[in-house]
Amino acid sequence: MGAEPAEQLALPGLETAGAPRKARRPRATEGGIALADDLPVARVALELPPAHLDRAFDYAVPADAAETARPGVRVKVRFGAQDVGGFVVDRAASSEHGDRLVPLRRVVSPEQVLTPAVLRLARAVADRYAGTLADVLRLAVPPRHARTEQAAHADAATDPLPPLAEPPGEWRPYRGGVALLRHLAAGGAPRAAWTALPGPDPLVETGAHWAAALSEAVRVAVAAGRGALVVLPDARDVARLSRALEARGLPPWVPTAGGRVAHLTADDGPSARYAQFLAVLRGDVPVAIGTRAAAFAPVRDLGLVVCWDDTADTHAEPRAPYPHTREVLALRAELERCAFVVGSHARTTATQALVARGWAKDVVAPRAVVRDRTPRVRALTSVELAKEGPGAVARLPAPALHAVRQALESGPVLVQVPRSGYVPVVACVRCRTPARCATCHGPLGLTGGRSDPQCRWCGRLAVDWTCDECGAHGLRATAVGSGRTAEELGRAFPGVTVRVSGAATGVLDTVPARRAIVVSTPGAEPVAPGGFACALLLDAAASTAGRGLGVAQDALARWLGAAALVRPAPAGGQVLLVGDAAPAPTGALVRWDPVGLAARELDEVTELGLPPAVRMASVEGERTAVSVVVGRVGLATGDAVLGPVTLDPAASARGGRDDDGHLVLPGGEPVRVLVRVPWEQGRELARQLAASLAVRSARREGGDLRVRLDPKEIV
Question: What are its GO biological-process terms (predicted)?
């Protein structure tokens, strides 16, 4: 059963029935409004979410907007009974929808904020993820700030780049690193999967090697007359890269003084962000760096796109159509024929799949270099700790405390804890049953050493809590957070400063290179000049105990993120992994071999038929809605369909397939259906899903629904 044609509504500029009409030029006047003499038709992409409206609509161009209604500008148009916003995507001499077109209401701004390159990219992203152009443009083009558009700003920098104090050498330790820069300098379009070494930036006191290497690559692209775009997980990484770029002659752009690098981050206010966006759009800067949405920045003459640390969850867009930065930039590299680099201290299976398919080349350091640049790593598992005697088997075992005591003599110590808070999870002291709220059944936790247990869902206090299973009143910690860990370390090392870095207490950017202990949650680790003397990675078992795809690689990425801040082994740096984590990521950390783990995991998902070895769509929602949408997808037959699975574990999963192999779901409860196809059919799967969603939108079919392509959490 193939996708049915979408029902069409009688709307301006939309053909609804009959044979295709011959293209006609609009009348010279429409409703008494004089129209443009040249190219009197504007094709407009509307900012409307319904899937069946995912196309350009034709409008007449009034004579007074003939010069301003250029492709890329924002406009207001009449659509049905409402005024809606949109973007002019083309001008034409005639329209296939007759000579009676509704005129544009007004041009919002003459600024051409949607460039042809970004429009092509947005369309490609929408097609890849079965989304709509309107949803992607909402991510790509920031809201207008009129006062900022009209403000004066410095002219673009035209002076040549200043010479470097030292020749670039951050890529020399890598196989293929020098070749990458050589191709960039020649205007080529190499594609690299880069596993970064730990280490400092020789030009920035608290800088990092990865930022130094990326700034060198960006400088090479700019020196060759091309633009560069780097997308990073958060504002802290943006600031670190900015300092590295400034140290190499690429200062940040400010409206009054100019510069060469624009910052596009979610933390900026609307005025500042729009000013930086306009600097990129107008060609005032050759470089843009920023967080997730910066992947769509309209950099001119683009020669290099970079996704740094694609293991970070912040690279996954939480809004429809849920694109990932790595995939957006990969599409952009193909469309604009520019160089592509995805880099991290770790390696995702998705990046490894790019290498396995031959789309990208590995850029990694030889083993001898890795051993020289990384700290010594030791896994303190229960088997190894048992050799130390009964006192060694504890959350903070004696060997770990001994290592911290020695390391404090030469510098600060980093302690990574996977959970924030004090005691986020508690259980009955007698029967070990998890303690739950009597009102909402959420998990109970402790916010301090003398606090009453509190529900983590509804916030109610559970004073005089009683276990429903055995009647006991006492509680024990089943998970310990960063606050309790800092308290324990403070008692173990009296007189030593203990600081906490995390979202709740404030994220530390740097710490002095002196005797101190820093307790941090993953991603909040500060930088110490010269590196930390030692790092403890606590509760390793909890890091690999989750379900779903990528648990092992996510755990390794968090560990490597902390371990990369430690001095190398020749300088005495060491990392201790405490706990019985899964063997595969533990071994990869000890060997410092993220590529090996990614290759192993890719082999496993290939054998199981899971992403990224295949393309997979997740359709979630009410049973009837899911059944109807999946039923119109021609590829959803036989073994390609997994499910339905009831999202409520207490409900039973019912359903089957018809004689053609298509899914038939009775019911009303929320379910999830997975549709998987070979990688080569992924584009067709997305097309068929988009067509089915357009039919659903046109028919106004009821029921909540969410469609995601290549979801990470499918277990």
Answer: DNA recombination; DNA replication initiation; DNA replication, synthesis of primer; double-strand break repair
Is the domain of 487 the same as that of 544?
yes
Binding residues: 428, 431, 437, 440, 455, 458, 467, 470
- Domain membership flag for residue 163: no
Alpha helices, DSSP H, located in 299-366: 325-336, 349-356
pLDDT tens column, 564-607:
999 999 999 999 999 989 999 999 999 999 999 999 999 999 99
Total residue count of the chain as it appears in this document: 715
Q: Is the peptide bond before 49 cis (omega within 30 degrees of 0)?
A: no
Binding-site residues for Zn(2+): 428, 431, 437, 440, 455, 458, 467, 470
Tokens 């559970």 -> residue: 462
Torsion, CA 294, CA 296, CA 298, CA 301, rounded to 10:
100
Specify the CATH number for the domain of residue 316: 3.40.50.300
How far apart are alpha carbons 441 and 435 in whole angstroms? 9
162-166, 350-354, 686-690: least confident range: 162-166
d(CA 240, CA 229) in angstroms, rounded, equals: 15
- The CA distance from 604 to 584, in Å, is 12
Number of structural domains in the chain: 4
632 and 594 both lie in a single domain: no
Residue 8 lies in a domain: no
Provide the token pair at 638. 């036989």
Please report the pLDDT score of residue 526 as a whole number. 96
**Sign of the Cα pseudo-torsion (109, 111, 116, 122, in order):** negative
**Burial per residue of 606-644, b for 16 or more beta-carbon CB atoms within 10 angstroms, e otherwise:** eeeebbbbbbbbbbbbbbbbbbbbbbbbebbbeebbebb
pTM for the model:
0.89
* CA gap 320, 216 in Å, rounded: 35
Same-domain pairing of 568 and 523: yes
**Domain assignment of residue 582, yes or no:** yes
Tokens of 514: 């002196």
Instruction: Please check whether residue 302 is in contact with residue 121, taking contact to mean a CB–CB distance below 8 angstroms.
Output: no
Packing angle of the helix pair 116-128, 133-140 (nearest 10 deg): 130
Residues 426 and 569 both lie in one domain? yes
Q: Which residues contact 368 (CB under 8 A, 6 or more apart)?
A: none
User: ∠ CA(3), CA(8), CA(11), 5° rounding?
Assistant: 155
On whether residue 538 sits in a domain, the answer given is: yes
Flag the least confident range among 119-128, 634-643, 653-662.
653-662
- Span 390-415, pLDDT tens digits: 555 567 888 999 999 999 999 999 99
Between 629 and 81, the higher pLDDT residue: 629
Nearest-angstrom CA–CA distance, 139 and 135 = 7
Give φ, ψ of 445 to 5 degrees: -150, 175
The answer, yes or no, to whether residue 665 has pLDDT greater than 90, is no
Q: Domain containing 622: what range?
A: 609-709
Domain boundary among 90, 112, 134: 112
Which residues, in sequence order, are CB contacts of 402 under 8 Å at separation 6+?
none
**SS3 call for 155:** coil
Rounded to a whole number of angstroms, the distance between the first and last alpha carbons of the chain is 28
Q: Which residues contact 618 (CB under 8 A, 6 or more apart)?
A: 672, 673, 674, 706, 707, 708, 709, 711, 714
pLDDT of residue 37 exceeding 50, the answer is: yes
pLDDT digits (tens, 9 = 90+) for 343-364: 999 999 999 999 999 999 999 9
Angle formed by the axes of helices 235-247 and 209-223, to 10°?
60
DSSP string, 46-105: E----GGG-SEEEEE-BGGGTTT--TT-EEEEEETTEEEEEEEEEEES-BTT-S--PBP-
